[in-house]
Design brief:
4 copies of one chain form a homotetramer. The first copy, chain A, has 177 residues and is an alpha/beta fold. Chain A is 41% helix and 19% strand. Chain A is built from 7 helices and 7 strands; from the N terminus they run E-H-E-H-E-E-H-E-H-E-H-H-E-H. Chains in contact: A-B, A-D, B-C, C-D. At the A-B interface, helix 1, strand 2, helix 2 and helix 3 of A face helix 1, strand 2, helix 2 and helix 3 of B.
Chain lengths: 177, 177, 177, 177
């Protein structure tokens, strides 16, 4: 069966975005890429820091409210529709709720086949890359490194600690049927 | 009937993005914003300049191919699904095909009510703002200023030539039922 | 005498950056552009929000500390050296200290001829453009609109409230000898 | 003698910017960061693709003209002045001319002490990171990987092929007297 959708899950600064761009480059067909960053960009600026929206604490903690969850649910349904309508889709997400986050996707997916990919990176290495990026709240990488994988199942896992994004992408692409 | 979706159409540098951010600020409920820029960002980098993708000519001309159209159709269906699932959505688009572009949206929308907004700006003024932005191919603003409105019908039109984005947004927001 | 340097002063969201890009486009010779934004980008990330660095308050207030001032003074000397070495330079600055900020530049300039340009914009209009930009702390535009011009003298002033960036740039360019 | 200036040289996508941000984070004093990217940002948009400016060929080749060189020379003098005026400065550069590029800096530096750092990265790895970044002309990384180091001497060299940016930064910081 043809894979129509790839969902990558990993903590902040684990290297998801780089893998996504490499996947778009190495996969022969055109794939659309969406994810939590593009979703947050679509939100009103005033939802950042609001009770119902999304808040980034000084220690790197992230909390989201009811308005965020409601819009995210509608967004998820729309993304699944795009795949059903024939678009190949790559999602990069941060499963802050671990297994519960994956179940939210599964519910929306119905039976749509997905390649589930875990993107691992040792917390200390991800924290260093967070410093090198310079555009993220310090602490997110460490806080999220393990918790986002709790109870989540994958078709395959890659680890960017010692493996380049392009090599991870090639490993994933080899599984796309 | 409640408006669930606002679609803004206007040429490059006519001021759509500024109006969208103002709409997100003045509308009391949270609205998600998508558009042709975020769609192009979701495409593989290799589709920029390719035959099937999207090409930006040196004179500001834009041409899109079959792969672009196929992904765009799936994307459009997904956006409509988000609205049907309860999200309020603002779209800013450039109807390069005029009436035909609007019909593509209508077909995907089914009967979903939309507030159609034309964003006008005199070509010479838009061309000047294109210089001031500094991040666009020179010539797009002039080439697109009129052609994107040909045969398109609107619920209301705003003109940024002499009116600020925030005032345009307030005019639009007053029509959102 | 040939003008080697243009210094624009105006509040946040008064339209300085757009005028600078238009000036670079309309002036026949190549001019380098620097300003408070590029200076802040050159600072360590950790200086944002620190006592000795620069702090952006929730109400739009900006305060800078001793480390910021020391680096800024060295930066200013370097910019003047670039002009003395033959480069044409456009600076856009926010004179948070009014006349005192201008005197800091004058001291560094020695006798180097400068075209001083005031960039005005009515506070309410600048505040609306701040919303339309979406990337600034709300409130800066209003707080800075008048105070940055207190006690400052200019060779010419432009007002972006009702005049486009490109037209302002042409007015300024006509004064460059 | 106190080091006032650090100059990093390496090919495109060798990891210079990440090391610079880590250096700014780990060095106890505040250091200003400038480099070829911020210099190109300061140029008029019209100099990109012009004869006298800077051209990026489709194969990743970069060529610069007389106007670029003249402005760059003035910029270099200004940067050195900033250091002499007391600012600590980190430069990341791409020595397209190898030893000749270093000599240009030396001439401007007079006797000012500099820590010269070579940033190495295997061409194939840098080329993969270029794909992962997605914002650079493909081919630059490979073309520049070795040529920028030809005839250049260093106080120390780091290699990002198998070493993280933060670890490279700590190695460099340990040499700052």
């Amino acid at each position: 069966m043809t894979t129509q959708m790839i969902i990558l899950n990993g903590g902040s600064s684990s290297g998801k975005s780089g893998i996504v761009r490499c996947l778009q480059a190495v996969l022969p067909d055109p794939w659309l890429a969406f994810g939590c960053d593009s979703f947050v960009d679509a939100l009103p600026a005033k939802m950042q820091g609001s009770d119902g929206g999304i808040e980034f604490a000084a220690d790197g903690g992230v909390s989201v409210g009811a308005d965020f969850r409601a819009l995210e649910a509608a967004w998820t349904e729309g993304i699944v529709t795009m795949a059903r309508a024939g678009a190949r889709i790559i999602i990069d997400d941060v499963f802050l709720g671990g297994a519960a986050s994956q179940q939210r996707w599964q519910k929306a997916l119905g039976g749509l086949p997905v390649l589930w990919v875990g993107v691992r990176c040792e917390g200390a290495v991800a924290a260093g890359r967070e410093v090198a990026r310079g555009d993220r709240v310090q602490g997110m990488a460490t806080l999220q490194a393990d918790v986002v994988h709790e109870g989540v199942f994958y078709d395959l896992e890659v680890d960017t600690t010692h493996t380049e994004s392009l090599e991870c992408a090639r490993t994933i692409a080899a599984q796309v049927g």
